[in-house]
Amino acid sequence: MPVAAIQDLSVKENVLARVEAIEPAPDGHRVTLALAASTTGPEPSQLANMLFGNCSLQPDVTLEAVAFPEGYANAFAKPAFGIEGLRATVGARGRALTCTALKPQGSAIDRLARLAGDFARAGIDVIKDDHGLANQAFSPFETRVPQIQAAIEAANRETGGRTVYAPTFSGGWRALEHQIQVARDCGVGAALVAPMLVGLPALQELRQALRVPILAHPALGGASRIAPAVLFGQLFRLCGADAIIFPNHGGRFSYSRETCLAIAATARGPWPGVAPAMPVPAGGMSVERVPEMLNDFGNDVMLLIGGNLLAAGADLPARAREFVAAVHGGGRP
Amino acid sequence: MPVAAIQDLSVKENVLARVEAIEPAPDGHRVTLALAASTTGPEPSQLANMLFGNCSLQPDVTLEAVAFPEGYANAFAKPAFGIEGLRATVGARGRALTCTALKPQGSAIDRLARLAGDFARAGIDVIKDDHGLANQAFSPFETRVPQIQAAIEAANRETGGRTVYAPTFSGGWRALEHQIQVARDCGVGAALVAPMLVGLPALQELRQALRVPILAHPALGGASRIAPAVLFGQLFRLCGADAIIFPNHGGRFSYSRETCLAIAATARGPWPGVAPAMPVPAGGMSVERVPEMLNDFGNDVMLLIGGNLLAAGADLPARAREFVAAVHGGGRP
After folding, report:
1. Torsion sign over Cα B256, B257, B263, B266
2. Which residue in A8, A45, A259 has the most chain B C-beta atoms within 10 A of its own C-beta, making it the best mutation to test that interface?
3. What ipTM score was computed for the predicted complex, to two decimals?
């Protein structure tokens, strides 16, 4: 609104945003704004509104970086597990973690459960649903999830492993509450959610309702307008994601290596009172790229390879074991 | 996933998306994809996932248009009121509607309530919260909303008018359920929600829980990557918005006139079984532009002018009456 129309002096002094700096930048200007923390709720939807609500509608404005005041995160959910909790859950110390995906959409539940069993027997740490496996009639959450969880538990008993399953949580709050109940009842060990599909507040409420590590998926993140390191690394982490999936460079997507390293850096960087979240590079990765990815991201990473394992067809179990061995070996041949 | 890795023939035939056409376009190519409706849930988060989930992460892909199969909308909330229901709620026939906004953030509740009373006495149809008035400590929903609603009811009793109040609904499902209860208890007559802030599924669930017209706000819509007519005109309408707020051309935002007309066209265009939604051009509009806006959008429109009225200071009541008279007069001087 017009600043001249603000009649309340305390609004002008304590609420109105301030322009702190305007600096020339290669592609325009870098503008630093100071917002009053009191305007943000403090909760995820109003925080997003203050950071990039109306600005998202401007074609030439991007949100590049956010700094939160000390203690700001305390009102938010924050990761319950973080990197250390995720390691403890799957029993993985001193090495990178492995992750794969159940797909395609439309597969019979029996087939998905067999696939999950094969992956678990190969020793993969986290088996997630493809984020396209939601709650469709061809494999409803309430029948799919218990069956896949049972297949993974059977494989764990066979191998002594601690593989966990992360099904996709989707829909509105009634649907999510039902899914939380189903997942709890059958002992599911992790969760997958795309915060921009269900809403950033729903990530936070899932985190509060579930007692398992949460993987955040970037779908609908439209991250060319909000820097991916801000949206995925900072905001998803603030609202409770324990692991941050993002499209790694050189795959099916076109993020640069620098963008990917920046996402990993914000996901696991220091933030007082907020546990580091596990970066999960993904999106068309292959077993052959394991050494390079471990070199890029180090040990505090979970590598996600889906289609490349599935493409092995009948050799899938061997290919999955190859993936696990490459990661456990630290990428050394 | 690699198509070659799909082993189930029925998935290939019934679930796999098809490329229907690839045509050259001025800025690249226009690609038409056919998705299986069964993959979309049918519910808002999974629909958004299928339409633009991973694609939103591609810098050179935009979602330009969507066509739904016959009957598809039946599984969704759809507008409960639509244009006709909104007209009936405020008692406005044969003319455009008027709307204004309470702001700024941080104002004392008393001040906002007085402002609402002034606007209602001027005969404005819908008084909405600025979408930045959420549930902050300086004006919590549960104390702000009953007080503003009371001020508007008092003004209505004075004038015989039927002005309604649309407070901002924000936060996660626990917060929304509480807000729904507060709004019902004090008889609030409309609602404002930004679906991209709270999540598209929350719009649908608000629509199902509230018995009042819902105004959808575009904040965080980042609509340069999804055509605004698709996101605001089609998806918000499908999920239950009765009125669609969007930044009109020539104001604080930079949508073209064509984009704005396209939003209005999809918001109120024919869709079997789905009531038309009221287009609400906004964003830095002025009373002087009323004739031009009525000429652009016709009578089935609600004009939203906020800051331009507030800027009148002590003359606000007169300026608000001028706005109402201009709209009731059909834009004729």
Report:
1. negative
2. A45
3. 0.90
